[in-house]
C-alpha cells in the first residue's frame, strides 16, 4: 500500500508563504509598474504643459520685442535636458525658426520627422491640424506611450495697423519618457526586493515558530492520541497554554482521563456480568442470542459457540404453554419489562427453574434495539419452598391435630364435667346440711377451676391459630365495669379485699371497642390481682387520654399484693410461665392469663404494660383508641368486704361513690306451662338438664338424636329446643337446618327457639351453631343460672327464681 506523502506544517506553511510572496511580487511588479508609468506620464504631462505655457509666453514676448536672440537662448538652454529629444519652433510654412538642436534651424520640420515612425508622424500631423484649427495647445502621448508631444500655437508678429492676420508659428516639443519610466520601475524593483527580504525573514521565523511552537506540540498530541487509540489511557500530552493547541491538548488529556474512567467502569461492568451469580443473555430483536455470560453456560451445560446465534427456545422444557410465551412477547414488544418463573431444561435434558427478568434495551430515540435477560437459578429455592410448604402443611396439620385434640379433650372433659357440676348444683339447691353443702362446694369449686384451665388452654390455642378477631361495637363502659364488679365481688369478699371499679372523667356514654375482648382482658387482670393479693384492695379504673392525637382509653388494674421482682417482669407474659414455681403451688393456675391478656390487647391495637415493686403491689394497664359517643357522668362502684349482701341495683350515682349491697334472690315466674324439648344423646347430661328444668316447673321432652327430635316436633308443639351438636343418626347442626326448612315451608308453625348445648367451646363452634339456624349457644358444663337466663330471654319472660 502506498504511504501518504507527509508535509509537516513547519515546511508547508513557510513554502505557502514563499509561494504567496512570489505571487505577490509578480502581481506587485505588474501593478506598481503600471502605477509608476501612469505617475510618470501624469507628472511629465503636467511639467510639459507648464514648460510649453512658459515658452509660449516667453517666445511671444520676445517676438513682440523682435528679440529673436532671446528666443534662441531660451530654447538652446533646454538642450542640456536629454529627455527633450526635439524642441522645434517653426512658422506657418514649416520652417524651423529655433531648436534645441542648432543644426535644425532654417530647415523644414517635416523633413526632420521622417525618422519618426509613420504612425507617430501621422498622429503629429493630426494634432497639429487641430491646434491650427482651434488655436489651442495640446499635449499628448504617442501610441507606444514612449514619449510626450506638445504642440502650442504662437503669435510671432502682431501689427495693430496691419489689416491682415498676425503671423503665427508653432512650438513643438518631444519629451522622451522611457528614461523616466525606467527609473520609476527600478524604484519599484528596489521596494519589492526589500519587501521580499522582509517576507523571507518572516517566513524563516514562521518556520521556526511552527516547528518549535506548533509542529512539535501537534506531533506530541498526535502521538498521545495514537496511544490513547491503542488503549493506553495513562499517557498525557503534558502541554499547557491558553492558545488553541494548549486547549486542544488539555481537552485530549481530559478525554484520556474520561476514557480511562469509562473503560474502568466498563471493565467493572464487564467483570460484574462475567462473574455474575445469575445468568445474563442479550438477544437481537429477532430473539437471536448475541451474548451469554459464563454463568448461563455453567447452568445450562452448553458451550458458548453452541449458544451464540441461537434462539432462547433452545432452553425450552415444554412445561409452559403457548399463551405463556404470547404474554411474554406482548409485554416485550410493548417496551415493558417482563418477569416470571420459568421451567427450562439443560443440555442434558435435566429440567431446572429460573426467575427470569427480560428488559427491552432502548436507543436514544426510544426504539427497542436489544433484549436483556437476567435469569436466576431458583431450582434449590423451589425445592426448599416445596419442602417449606410441606413442612408448613405438616405444621398446620399438627396444629390442626393439636386444635382437634384440645377440642376433643375439651368436649370429652366438658361432657362428664357437665354431669358433675349439674348434679352438684342440683344437690346444692336441695341439700340443707351444712357439712354436705361444704363438700358440694368443694366439688363445684374444683370443677369450676378445671373448666377455667380448659378455657385458658382453648383461648391460647385460638390466639396461636389467629382465630381471634376484634369486633368493635358501641359499648357502655359503666355497664361493663358493673358486670365485672358483680363477677368478682364474691372472690374479693372471700379474701376480705376492697374491690373498686371506677370510670374517671368519661365524656361519652358509648365507646367503639370490642366488649368481649376488653372483658376477657380485665377479667384475667382482676383474677390475677385478687389471686396474688392477701389484704388491702384491688382497683379497676378507666379514663380518657389522648393517644397520637386521637381519643383513647386507659384501663388500669392496681393491687396491693405480693408484687413482681424486677428481674421477672419480662417473663410474666410468656405462656405457661409464673414468677417462680412456688407460685403455682401456692396460688394455682397454669400461667396463661397474662399471655392471653397481652395477645388480646395487641389484637385490639394496643399494648399491655406493668409497673410493680416486690412486696408493694402491681399496676397493670393497657391503652386503646376508641371512637367517641355521647356524653355521660362519672361514677364509681365499690364492693367492700364488710358488706354481707351481693350487688343488686347498680345504678350509678353522680354525687358520690356508694357501697352496693349483694343482690337478693328475686321471685319471678317459673316454667309452668312451658314445654322444652331436650335433644341429647348422653343420658347423664340429659338427666341433669331434665332435673334443672323440672325443678323450675318446665315440662321436659327428651330425644336421643336429631331424627327423634324431628318426629316429636312434627306431632307436638314445644316452646324451646335445647340441642346437642354431636349426636348419632342426625347431628344438631343438620337437625337445626331441617327445622328451619320445615318452618319456611309451613310444615312447622311459627319459630321455635333453638339453643345449642354442646361441649364444643371454640369460637368457630359458636359461629357454626348460629349459621345452622340456632338462636343461642351454651357451652358445657352448663351453669344452671346461665341456662335459665337464656331460656327466659328466648321465651320473652323475666328471669325466674334461680335455685342455687
UniProtKB/TrEMBL annotation:
<keyword id="KW-0472">Membrane</keyword>
<dbReference type="InterPro" id="IPR035965">
    <property type="entry name" value="PAS-like_dom_sf"/>
</dbReference>
<dbReference type="InterPro" id="IPR036890">
    <property type="entry name" value="HATPase_C_sf"/>
</dbReference>
<keyword id="KW-0547">Nucleotide-binding</keyword>
<dbReference type="Pfam" id="PF00672">
    <property type="entry name" value="HAMP"/>
</dbReference>
<feature type="transmembrane region" description="Helical">
    <location>
        <begin position="192"/>
        <end position="210"/>
    </location>
</feature>
<dbReference type="GO" id="GO:0016020">
    <property type="term" value="C:membrane"/>
</dbReference>
<feature type="domain" description="Response regulatory">
    <location>
        <begin position="675"/>
        <end position="795"/>
    </location>
</feature>
<dbReference type="Pfam" id="PF00072">
    <property type="entry name" value="Response_reg"/>
</dbReference>
<dbReference type="Pfam" id="PF13426">
    <property type="entry name" value="PAS_9"/>
</dbReference>
<dbReference type="InterPro" id="IPR003594">
    <property type="entry name" value="HATPase_dom"/>
</dbReference>
<dbReference type="InterPro" id="IPR001610">
    <property type="entry name" value="PAC"/>
</dbReference>
<dbReference type="InterPro" id="IPR001789">
    <property type="entry name" value="Sig_transdc_resp-reg_receiver"/>
</dbReference>
<dbReference type="InterPro" id="IPR005467">
    <property type="entry name" value="His_kinase_dom"/>
</dbReference>
<feature type="transmembrane region" description="Helical">
    <location>
        <begin position="6"/>
        <end position="29"/>
    </location>
</feature>
<keyword id="KW-0418">Kinase</keyword>
<keyword id="KW-1133">Transmembrane helix</keyword>
<dbReference type="GO" id="GO:0005524">
    <property type="term" value="F:ATP binding"/>
</dbReference>
<dbReference type="Pfam" id="PF00512">
    <property type="entry name" value="HisKA"/>
</dbReference>
<dbReference type="InterPro" id="IPR003660">
    <property type="entry name" value="HAMP_dom"/>
</dbReference>
<keyword id="KW-0812">Transmembrane</keyword>
<dbReference type="InterPro" id="IPR011006">
    <property type="entry name" value="CheY-like_superfamily"/>
</dbReference>
<keyword id="KW-0902">Two-component regulatory system</keyword>
<keyword id="KW-0067">ATP-binding</keyword>
<feature type="modified residue" description="4-aspartylphosphate">
    <location>
        <position position="724"/>
    </location>
</feature>
<dbReference type="InterPro" id="IPR000014">
    <property type="entry name" value="PAS"/>
</dbReference>
<dbReference type="InterPro" id="IPR003661">
    <property type="entry name" value="HisK_dim/P_dom"/>
</dbReference>
<dbReference type="InterPro" id="IPR036097">
    <property type="entry name" value="HisK_dim/P_sf"/>
</dbReference>
<protein>
    <recommendedName>
        <fullName>histidine kinase</fullName>
        <ecNumber>2.7.13.3</ecNumber>
    </recommendedName>
</protein>
<keyword id="KW-0597">Phosphoprotein</keyword>
<feature type="domain" description="PAS">
    <location>
        <begin position="265"/>
        <end position="311"/>
    </location>
</feature>
<dbReference type="Pfam" id="PF02518">
    <property type="entry name" value="HATPase_c"/>
</dbReference>
<feature type="domain" description="PAC">
    <location>
        <begin position="338"/>
        <end position="390"/>
    </location>
</feature>
<keyword id="KW-0808">Transferase</keyword>
<feature type="domain" description="HAMP">
    <location>
        <begin position="212"/>
        <end position="264"/>
    </location>
</feature>
<dbReference type="InterPro" id="IPR000700">
    <property type="entry name" value="PAS-assoc_C"/>
</dbReference>
<dbReference type="InterPro" id="IPR004358">
    <property type="entry name" value="Sig_transdc_His_kin-like_C"/>
</dbReference>
<dbReference type="GO" id="GO:0000155">
    <property type="term" value="F:phosphorelay sensor kinase activity"/>
</dbReference>
<feature type="domain" description="Histidine kinase">
    <location>
        <begin position="408"/>
        <end position="628"/>
    </location>
</feature>
Amino acid at each position: 500500500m502506498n504511504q501518504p506523502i507527509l508535509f509537516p506544517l513547519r515546511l508547508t506553511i513557510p513554502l505557502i508563504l514563499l509561494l504567496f510572496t512570489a505571487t505577490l511580487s509578480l502581481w506587485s511588479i505588474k501593478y506598481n509598474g503600471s502605477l509608476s508609468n501612469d505617475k510618470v506620464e501624469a507628472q511629465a504631462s503636467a511639467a510639459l504643459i507648464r514648460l510649453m505655457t512658459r515658452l509660449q509666453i516667453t517666445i511671444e514676448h520676445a517676438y513682440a520685442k523682435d528679440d529673436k536672440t532671446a528666443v534662441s537662448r531660451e530654447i538652446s538652454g533646454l538642450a542640456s535636458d536629454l529627455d527633450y529629444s526635439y524642441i522645434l519652433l517653426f512658422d506657418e510654412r514649416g520652417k524651423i525658426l529655433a531648436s534645441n538642436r542648432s543644426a535644425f534651424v532654417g530647415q523644414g520640420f517635416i523633413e526632420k520627422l521622417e525618422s519618426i515612425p509613420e504612425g507617430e508622424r501621422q498622429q503629429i500631423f493630426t494634432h497639429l491640424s487641430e491646434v491650427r484649427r482651434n488655436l489651442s495647445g495640446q499635449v499628448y502621448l504617442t501610441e507606444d506611450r514612449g514619449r510626450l508631444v506638445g504642440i502650442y500655437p504662437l503669435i510671432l508678429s502682431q501689427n495693430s495697423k496691419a489689416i491682415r492676420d498676425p503671423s503665427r508659428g508653432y512650438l513643438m516639443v518631444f519629451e522622451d519618457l522611457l528614461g523616466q519610466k525606467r527609473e520609476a520601475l527600478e524604484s519599484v524593483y528596489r521596494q519589492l526586493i526589500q519587501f521580499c527580504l522582509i517576507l523571507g525573514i518572516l517566513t524563516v521565523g514562521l518556520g521556526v515558530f511552527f516547528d518549535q511552537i506548533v509542529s512539535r506540540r501537534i506531533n506530541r498530541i498526535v502521538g498521545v492520541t495514537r496511544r490513547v487509540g491503542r488503549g493506553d489511557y495513562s499517557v498525557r500530552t503534558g502541554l499547557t497554554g491558553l492558545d488553541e493547541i494548549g486547549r486542544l491538548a488539555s481537552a485530549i488529556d481530559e478525554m484520556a482521563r474520561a476514557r480511562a474512567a469509562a473503560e474502568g467502569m466498563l471493565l467493572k461492568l464487564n467483570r460484574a456480568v462475567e462473574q455474575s451469580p445469575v445468568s445474563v443473555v442479550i438477544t437481537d430483536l429477532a430473539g437471536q442470542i448475541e451474548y451469554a455470560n459464563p454463568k448461563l453456560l455453567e447452568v445450562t451445560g452448553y458451550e458458548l459457540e453452541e449458544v451464540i446465534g441461537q434462539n432462547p427456545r433452545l432452553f425450552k422444557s415444554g412445561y409452559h404453554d403457548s399463551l405463556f410465551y404470547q404474554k411474554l412477547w406482548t409485554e416485550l414488544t410493548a417496551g415493558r419489562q417482563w418477569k416470571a418463573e420459568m421451567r427450562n431444561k439443560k443440555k442434558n435434558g435435566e429440567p431446572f427453574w429460573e426467575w427470569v427478568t427480560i428488559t427491552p434495551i432502548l436507543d436514544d430515540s426510544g426504539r427497542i434495539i436489544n433484549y436483556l435477560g437476567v435469569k436466576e437459578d431458583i431450582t434449590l429455592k423451589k425445592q426448599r419452598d416445596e419442602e417449606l410448604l410441606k413442612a408448613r402443611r405438616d405444621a398446620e396439620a399438627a396444629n390442626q391435630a393439636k386444635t382437634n385434640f384440645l377440642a376433643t379433650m375439651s368436649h370429652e372433659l366438658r361432657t362428664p364435667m357437665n354431669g358433675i357440676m349439674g348434679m352438684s348444683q342440683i344437690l346444692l339447691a336441695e341439700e340443707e346440711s351444712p357439712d354436705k353443702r361444704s363438700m358440694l362446694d368443694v366439688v363445684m369449686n374444683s370443677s369450676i377451676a378445671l373448666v377455667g384451665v380448659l378455657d385458658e388452654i382453648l383461648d391460647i390455642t385460638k390466639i396461636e391459630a389467629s382465630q381471634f378477631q376484634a369486633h368493635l361495637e358501641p359499648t357502655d363502659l359503666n355497664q361493663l365495669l358493673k358486670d365485672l364488679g358483680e363477677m368478682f365481688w364474691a372472690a374479693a369478699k372471700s379474701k376480705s379485699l376492697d374491690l373498686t371499679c371506677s370510670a374517671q372523667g368519661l365524656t361519652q356514654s358509648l365507646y367503639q371497642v370490642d366488649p368481649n375482648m376488653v372483658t376477657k382482658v380485665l377479667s384475667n387482670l382482676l383474677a390475677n390481682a385478687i389471686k396474688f393479693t392477701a389484704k388491702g384492695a384491688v382497683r379497676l379504673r378507666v379514663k380518657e387520654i389522648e393517644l397520637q392525637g386521637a381519643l383513647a382509653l386507659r384501663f388500669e388494674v392496681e393491687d396491693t399484693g405480693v408484687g413482681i421482682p424486677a428481674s421477672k417482669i419480662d417473663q410474666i407474659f410468656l405462656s405457661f410461665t409464673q414468677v417462680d414455681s412456688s407460685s403455682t403451688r401456692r396460688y394455682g393456675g397454669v400461667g396463661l392469663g397474662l399471655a392471653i391478656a397481652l395477645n388480646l390487647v395487641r389484637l385490639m391495637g394496643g399494648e399491655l404494660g406493668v409497673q410493680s415493686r416486690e412486696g408493694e403491689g402491681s399496676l397493670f394497664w393497657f391503652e386503646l383508641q376508641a371512637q367517641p359517643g355521647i356524653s355521660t357522668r362519672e361514677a364509681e362502684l365499690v364492693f367492700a368486704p364488710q358488706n354481707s349482701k351481693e350487688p343488686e341495683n347498680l345504678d350509678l350515682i353522680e354525687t358520690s361513690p356508694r357501697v352496693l349491697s349483694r343482690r337478693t334472690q328475686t321471685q319471678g315466674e317459673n316454667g309452668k306451662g312451658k314445654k322444652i324439648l331436650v335433644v341429647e344423646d348422653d343420658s347423664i347430661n340429659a338427666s341433669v338438664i331434665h332435673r334443672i328444668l323440672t325443678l323450675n316447673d318446665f315440662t321436659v321432652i327428651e330425644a336421643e338424636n336429631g331424627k327423634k327430635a324431628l318426629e316429636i316436633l312434627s306431632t307436638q308443639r314445644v316452646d324451646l329446643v335445647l340441642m346437642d351438636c354431636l349426636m348419632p343418626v342426625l347431628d344438631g347442626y343438620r337437625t337445626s337446618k331441617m327445622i328451619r326448612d320445615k318452618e319456611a315451608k309451613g310444615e312447622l308453625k311459627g319459630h321455635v327457639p333453638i339453643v345449642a348445648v354442646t361441649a364444643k367451646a371454640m369460637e368457630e363452634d359458636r359461629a357454626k351453631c348460629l349459621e345452622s339456624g340456632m338462636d343461642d349457644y351454651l357451652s358445657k358444663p352448663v351453669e344452671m343460672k346461665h341456662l335459665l337466663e337464656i331460656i327466659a330471654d328466648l321465651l320473652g319472660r323475666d328471669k325466674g327464681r334461680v335455685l342455687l
